[in-house]
Design goal:
Layout lengths: L5 E5 L4 H12 L3 E6 L2 H11 L2 E4 L5 H13 L4 E6 L16 H29 L2 E5 L12 H21 L5 E7 L2 E2 L1 H6 L1 H7 L3 H8 L9 E2 H12 L10 E4 L17
Parallel strand pairs: 1-2, 1-4, 2-3, 4-5, 5-6, 6-9, 7-8
Helix pairs in contact: 1-9, 3-4, 4-5
Length: 263
Amino acid sequence: MSKQRTVVITGAGTGIGEACARLFASGGARVALIGRRREPLERVARETGGLALDGDAASAADWQRFIAAIKADGGAVDALIACAGGFGMGMGTATETDDAAWSAAMRANLDTAFVAARACLPDLIERRGAIVLVASIASLAAGPAVCGYTTSKHALIGLTRSLARDYGPHGVRVNAVCPGWVRTPMADAEMQPLMQRYDETLDAAYQRVCADVPLRRPAHAEEIADVCEFLVSPAASIVTGATLVADGGSSIVDVPTLAFDHM
């Protein structure tokens, strides 16, 4: 049995997944980096000493290949950080969402987490490991015209609780992290309509979306990686089935009282 901890990270080529890869590698873990695009994975792998595995995190067949490669590399899965997902998958109201868009949203944001967890569980049971599902504040509330995304992210909380209940007796801990706005390439792209509408910079657009957030700023990907690291660490040994909100306080704001801020 390998003494070096192996952490599997989906969506590892950019954003929160990349930040997790760098953080865990800096702590001495072996990181297995999973994503669709080979080029960013290889870049992160070179810089972290990780194992780059390109493919579809929602594919059971690809996971057979991923697990075989991890074992061939001398590892067994100690922790899974499921970051794969996408805001663009699931745009539109219910009547604007066709069957293909709905299925794409579920596959990108829910199936990736479920299939990843199912593939890693045999090792996690053996090694009494941990899972973190990176969800969203969209798991707790609804934004406008993002029906598929909101529904798939809400479902991640149910998946977290189901896995935690079923596999807790085997020593496996499962938790969810719900970030708010995080400065990542994906979020940068989401700022574009605001930048165009108000003729403003990227920084100004982020300030606009965080105007009513108590901390008045978006998170950095490294801050969410720190939360993930905590949840799979011995410091969180009694924490399972939890939803840890890391949103700068945005979800605690009583929206009907916002008008009083401007009196």
